[in-house]
Amino acid sequence: MIQRLLKEVRGYKKASILAPLFMVGEVIMELMLPFLMSFIIDYGVNQGDMSQVFKYGSLMLVCAFISLFCGAQSGNYAAYASSGFVKNLRQAMFENIQRFSFANIDKYSTSGLVTRMMTDATNVQNAYQMVLRMCVRAPLMLIVAMCMTFYINAELALIFLVAMIFLAIVLGFITLKSYPMFNRTFRKYDDLNASVQENVTNIRVVKAYVKEEAEISKFRKAAGNLKAMFMKAENILVFNSPVMQLTMYGCILALSWLGAQMIVGSSLTTGELMSMFTYTMNILMSLMMLSMIFVMLSMSLASARRIHEILEEKPSIVNPEHPVMEVADGSIEFDHVSFGYYQGEDKYVLSDINLSIRPGETIGILGPTGSSKSTLMNLIPRLYDVSEGTVRVGGVDVRDYDLDTLRNSVAMVLQKNVLFSGTIKDNLRWGNEQATDEEMLEACKLACADEFIQGFPKKYDTYIEQGGTNVSGGQKQRLCIARALLKKPKVLILDDSTSAVDTRTDSQIRKAFREDIPDTTKIIISQRISSIEDADRIIVLDEGRINGIGTHQQLLASNAMYQEVYETQKKGGDDDE
Question: Which one, out of 44, 252, 383, 543, has a CA that is 20 to 30 A from the CA of 114?
């Protein structure tokens, strides 16, 4: 896992090396100061020799300035390396998510992916910066300070050795207990983000149903659960501070007692004892830093594991070794196709589908909710792979195509119409980045969108708010249809994409399709028979199986399900009249 994450340090290796090198210089110069101070006391102050005071005092001043310079450089390089590392990490996650198939996306919640991109990445960034600085500073300071104390007096230095063994045992126990708790805590972050995202995205519905208090209660519960998990982990980590204090004051008391006896016995000088006290603080500070590192690593390891999970997720749909780079026409064939969302399950949502669609044909698809109409269409541009059988477009198995080639030839207007923040032109160019103003105008006329766009003060330069909140549902649908038409696809799939427009506009759109794009295969999923009754053929789906195929008149004469839907809608229309 660590090896995979460190691949994202690319471009920042130099800074990642210089940061700890400068830290080494800072620590060495810093630890020279107590040693030089002992010389000032023993050879200068105690003997009344001011020349020695100035000599060693000047050396201390030089060491202090070098330490300051090295520390500043180390901090600068560490910040640069860690921010660059997390930038690469987020970029790698985002790029891999973009390659996910629908099956991969189904494994993760949106809020979970956001948490990994933001909170988890920030935790790893902080840990990496700490590794470059504290993970070098603390062990190096500990080792050098210990060496200096053994050099000054080996008997007194044994005090610190006992303290280190005691702390290592306690910190190891704390880390082992806290890590799994932090792991569970970050899953609670996903729940909290899900609550915020759902509420903000659907704030209009919340207000329309006066559910503000219920949503506040839901958020409070998610935040409370997160707090409880953190408190549980912190209740273990809280032992870190008193254990450090106990060790620190225990060392000072032991050093004071034994050091005083050694001075009386003339086996230790006053300057040496003073330097020992300074090294005591250095050793204990380094141990405290190590305990902070353990805490941070406990949190960041849980985050690193979640990030690694995204980076290592392999897209279930990839290009073949020698892909076909051109789609001949819009013919479609389903050959004994069955499909299930989860591998290894016997239950299929589509079972033994056999269907042949000619280029330029208009096909209507009708069926009750949950009959897998949308799922059937998702197999055409290979958003999912079939579990059994074969789907062919242009006479070629969709698994043999280059994915971009196939999906550029199959334009889909999904059930949920999505517009992005930007101008109308920006949104239309999702269909074709190089589209001219004339091509956009033509596509919008075919989709009956030009008429309302011309009513905006800025026309095609009108800004669309995030999610298309400043246009109606029908206007959003028509813009999405125009965007799909700009791809000049060989197959156009409309997944209940005219449900929010009136019947007159719906009829105009279908007429434009017949007259202006006759060679494009058109597949229209709809709950309204009026939207598909003039199709060349209509497919009736029921529980993932084809219940009937034929023209409007043929199905009225032979298919009971179609007859029932027709009579229900006709009766509803008569009642309205």
Answer: 383
